[in-house]
Amino acid sequence: RRVHGQECHYFQKILKPYFHHIHRHQNSLLPRFFQLFRIKTNKGRSIRMVVMQNILPSSLNITKSYDLKGSTYGRRTSQELRHSSSITLKDMDFLEMNKKIIIGSTKKSLLQIQLSLDSEFLRTNNLMDYSLLLGIKPLTPELIAYRTKQAELYNIERKQAVERKSSMSKTTSLYSYDGALECVDENGSPILVYCGIIDILQEYDFTKQVEHFVKGTVHSKTSISAVSSVFYSYRFLGYQHQ
């Protein structure tokens, strides 16, 4: 995706701690960045791009997706759009539709620990305005059969490959072979959940501090997105742990 100059500069600044964090925590929900480059046009204009791993698989038709920040102001879509699979829903939609994702006590504990570690990294580096992206897909018998075959192929290829110590893919006990969490919804129906933290390159800089001041004079300062990285982190965690 395209990144602005300030995002590009800040990413280079945190590149070393980011690499160490991803290498240390295989379950991390932070984006997997692969390449950062700049294209210069004939007119001298610079376009900066970053290549990253997709969170939502292109091979599946994701039924519902949610972008969850933990804030409430402006975090609701209209009733007409809530039932469209092409619309990414937000925090208030998730709460008002009484959505639940049940993953079991062991995976819940692992996920909460990892969210805390990732949030600590973002907070330490003064980052905010990120979201937890969720993609949900019902686990039908046909999809189970397809995934079983894919998992077998994946395991064969993995055995034939040279053993690697890279942690750039989600292959630990928390996730299945393709990065999905196998869960059930509020009705007890089996679902696949793909999740990851996105948009992590926004620093709580002077511009965001001004935005916080301006919006805070009209709306509750705890409900808006533009808040300090410390408050943002704890609010984000509080929402995800509900």
What does this structure look like?
With 242 residues, the protein is of the alpha+beta class. The chain has six helices and nine strands, in the order E-H-E-E-E-E-H-E-H-E-H-E-E-H-H. It has a six-stranded mixed sheet. A hairpin with a 4-residue loop joins strand 8 and strand 9 (190-198).
Taking pLDDT < 50 over at least 5 consecutive residues as the criterion, the unreliable ranges are 162-169
- Rg of Cα set: 19 Å
Taking the alpha carbons of the first and last residues, their distance comes to: 31 Å
How many β-strand stretches?
9
Average residue pLDDT = 87
Largest sheet: 6 strands, mixed
Shape: globular
What is the succession of H and E elements? EHEEEEHEHEHEEHH
Which structural class fits the helix and strand makeup?
alpha+beta
Number of helices: 6
Query: Which strands sit side by side, in order, in the main sheet?
Result: 5-4-7-9-8-6
As a percent range, the share of helical residues equals 25-40%
Q: Roughly what fraction of the amino acids lie in strands?
A: 15-25%
